[in-house]
Amino acid sequence: DTTVKQNPRYKLARVGKPVNLICSQTMNHDTMYWYQKKPNQAPKLLLFYYDKILNREADTFEKFQSSRPNNSFCSLYIGSAGLEYSAMYLCASSRRGAETLYFGSGTRLTVL
Amino acid sequence: QQKVQQSPESLIVPEGGMASLNCTSSDRNVDYFWWYRQHSGKSPKMLMSIFSNGEKEEGRFTVHLNKASLHTSLHIRDSQPSDSALYLCAASTSGSWQLIFGSGTQLTVMP
Fold first, then answer.
1. pLDDT tens digit string along B20-52?
2. Phi and psi at residue A59, in whole multiples of 5°?
3. How far is A15 from A49, CA to CA, in rounded Å?
4. Using a CB-CB distance cutoff of 8 angstroms, which residues of chain B are in contact with residue A31?
């Protein structure tokens, strides 16, 4: 019954190929986030949109792109997937910064 | 270096027992702490938040915060098998959009 939806649930990609993950929310939240989670590791913030302003973390700046064509929709784009990109990608949204985050069920990306 | 440390990594308690989970931030600018719960195959959901020194209770769940030591703990009394999940602690600073998570405590409640 989550109102943050992610597609697809599972994604298989080849090394060197692009990957595009999709997230949507129906709560009219102004902030949307992408986290990367690997087993036994903390979810790592990759980037977030506040309204139309994209903020990317310094250490992942060149690895991930994103777009937010409207308030409800946000994508995560990997230009050239590497084996190290295999992980669960969690999208989240909040009404405003650092208030309660609502997460989607995630997309499990496997890069072969 | 991870800024939010959680312990233990895993915890097994009997049904009806007390579960105690710990979380500490190494960032002195942190103002807010959050606890999220993630059941297997599901998305993380916010369980409780605490911003002031002291204690906050919601049903069987109690959260403590010591701002001086940047330590928070989550206590679950009368634990139920349905409490079995990954518990994630997160911290943020005032005015920041960024929530920094710990790696979690995997709680198993044995019937």
1. 999 999 988 888 999 999 999 889 999 999 999
2. -80, -5
3. 27
4. 97
